[in-house]
Design brief:
about 250 residues, two-stranded antiparallel ribbon
């Protein structure tokens, strides 16, 4: 296949990156990796796999991913994270989509996700039915540049694929906490720049409301122990973002 560029941003992902690369190889005309100055073997592994590797100081998820898109040779882009893989069903679906006779109807496609956490796929917990726009024509779309939870803006109607991306989210609870701290800091900095503020009363309420929402209303209890931990740490993350926003605003 020559009409699709797979783009990946990475930082110290030597434990995940090869699994990801093997999963995209059947559909990729090229693989572009933008490495945020990793201190492990991430860049070395990618080069040995035949990827186009660029090293760039990290300045935000959206801008880093858009830089990767800009280095691609093809207009059609599949954006995937280093801790994600394409299912076999999705590999076949994308292969058929890019056959010369297929005729692609949409400028972009949402892809369903399966979320692997603490040894199992979460079927509930607010992540059991997620779709993310990951496949798009860069002449009609681009990444947003918000600090975290970046997205892709596209002109035109968006299609939906059936095959899934499987997200191997966190190695363990320590890894989860490490990433939550980083994401919360970036989100809080963004809130302060936007002029958003939160009361300390809302800080007190945020955790119980967040936990109840994910564990009870979104069915986290149906996912067993992984569902409980996901619900707990999702509520913690929401609370931490508010606390860090208050801290930064008070400091300023």
């Amino acid at each position: 296949m020559t009409g699709l560029s797979v783009v990946i941003i990475a930082f110290n992902e030597e434990n995940n990156i090869l699994r990801c690369l093997n999963s995209v190889k059947p559909v990729a005309g090229e693989i572009v990796v933008v490495d945020s100055m990793s201190t492990d073997r991430t860049a070395e592994i990618c080069r040995s796999f035949g990827c186009k590797v660029f090293q760039r100081v990290f300045d935000g998820f959206g801008s880093q991913k858009q830089f990767a898109v800009d280095q691609a040779s093809n207009n059609w882009i599949l954006s995937i994270d280093a801790d994600e893989i394409l299912s076999e069903e999705l590999q076949k679906e994308i292969t058929l989509l890019f056959l010369p006779e297929s005729g692609i109807r949409y400028p972009a496609f949402r892809i369903p996700f399966s979320f692997h956490y603490l040894g199992r796929i979460l079927k509930y917990s607010g992540v059991g039915n997620e779709f993310h726009l990951r496949l798009f024509d860069r002449t009609k779309g681009c990444f947003t540049t918000v600090p975290v939870h970046e997205g892709i803006k596209v002109k035109g109607e968006i299609g939906t694929l059936k095959g899934k991306i499987i997200h191997y989210s966190y190695r363990d609870i320590s890894h989860h906490l490490e990433k939550l701290n980083m994401y919360a800091s970036r989100a809080a900095e963004g809130y302060v720049r936007e002029g958003r503020s939160f009361s300390k009363l809302w800080l007190v309420l945020k955790f119980p409301i967040g936990f109840f929402t994910v564990y009870i209303l979104k069915g986290g209890f149906l996912d067993g122990y992984p569902g409980f931990m996901w619900s707990f740490l999702a509520a913690f993350y929401s609370t931490l973002k508010v606390a860090k926003t208050i801290e930064i605003a008070t400091r300023k």
